[in-house]
Specification:
The protein has 309 residues and is of the alpha+beta class. It contains seven helices and twelve strands.
Length: 309
């Protein structure tokens, strides 16, 4: 999301696979044209402003030059605000990342900062529905990789969730609707950002979009989620170097271990919490889809229907 350079603050620390989680343990990017976007949307740049894409030399991200001035102004304005105490990495992402605003039929209607999209007051006004994705990565033993979100995350810190949850951004490579390519590009990017999984370990064409989920969930009164969430499944053995700014712990689980995790979360044991989007997927889809993961028949359940939950 002159263009400000986006720099990843990465600490090359390998986070171990957790053995302390309180449940039992076992063994092509393309471009899309903006010509079809509605010019009368208040969320779009004025037609008088040029829209061009520029790649950051650090991350190769595509940033919109038409919105960089507003990013800088918003970030400067935060200096005296209560949110100035926010973790520096998370604060930067909140203002530099531009989420893709959509309607309930998943049609693009504009874009706005990650900060604005996650303010509960904006969500309540109906101005913050945006695209998201949730990756479910299984290894060759068909165990699911989970992560515990870091303590510095603005929304839902320290909750356990699926492999990776984030947003495609308002940039050429992540706006491509055909075959959900934009969302799959974003998933590959964030698996590297959050978990240090190299792109070659998770080829874009190996992500299987199974469906979409529309949901809303408060976090702490100020923050929340209102997302149209793409559910992406992939079976790969990968290497990892999780980023401690994003991830506290990681762990592979089989089905029985996940059921034990659900039981402990329901009982409130050890303060264990699950993200609301992960729980929705678990309760509605995950175990029946897990069968197809093991059989290699995920295509049989891929319908891309929007499930309004």
């Amino acid at each position: 999301m002159p263009v400000a350079t986006c720099r990843l603050l990465y600490i090359p620390t390998t986070i171990r696979l957790s053995s302390s989680l309180p449940f039992s343990s076992s063994s092509s990017s393309s471009s899309s044209s903006s010509s079809s976007f509605p010019r009368n949307s208040r969320f779009f740049p004025s037609p008088s402003l040029s829209f061009r894409s520029t790649r950051s030399p650090i991350l190769g991200r595509v940033l919109s030059s038409s919105t960089s001035a507003s990013h800088a102004a918003a970030t400067a304005a935060m200096g005296d605000a209560p949110d100035a105490g926010m973790d520096a990495v998370q604060r930067r992402l909140m203002f530099e990342d531009e989420c893709i605003l959509v309607n309930e039929d998943d049609k693009v209607v504009g874009h706005d900062s990650k900060y604005n999209c996650h303010l509960w007051e904006n969500i309540e006004k109906g101005n913050a529905l945006h695209r998201a994705f949730s990756v479910f990565l299984f290894n060759s033993k068909y165990e699911l990789l989970l992560q515990q979100r870091s303590a510095t995350k603005v929304t839902f810190p320290l909750v356990w969730t699926n492999t990776c949850c984030s947003h495609p951004l308002y940039r050429d490579t992540e706006l491509v609707d055909e075959a959900s390519l934009g969302v799959r590009n974003a998933a590959q990017r964030k698996l590297l950002d959050e978990l240090g999984i190299p792109a070659e370990d998770v080829p874009v064409d190996q992500f299987m979009p199974l469906g979409r989920m529309l949901y809303k969930a408060p976090s702490d009164g100020k923050w929340g989620e209102h997302e149209l969430d793409y559910l992406l499944f992939i079976v790969r053995d990968v290497s990892m170097k999780p980023n401690p700014d994003e991830v506290a712990e990681v762990k592979y689980v089989n089905r029985e271990e996940l059921r034990e995790l659900l039981r402990k979360a329901d009982a409130g044991e050890g303060g264990l919490k699950l993200s609301p989007w992960f729980r929705l997927v678990v309760d509605n889809f995950l175990f029946k889809w897990w069968d197809h993961v093991e059989k290699g028949t995920l295509k049989d359940v891929a319908d891309m229907e929007i499930h309004r939950l």
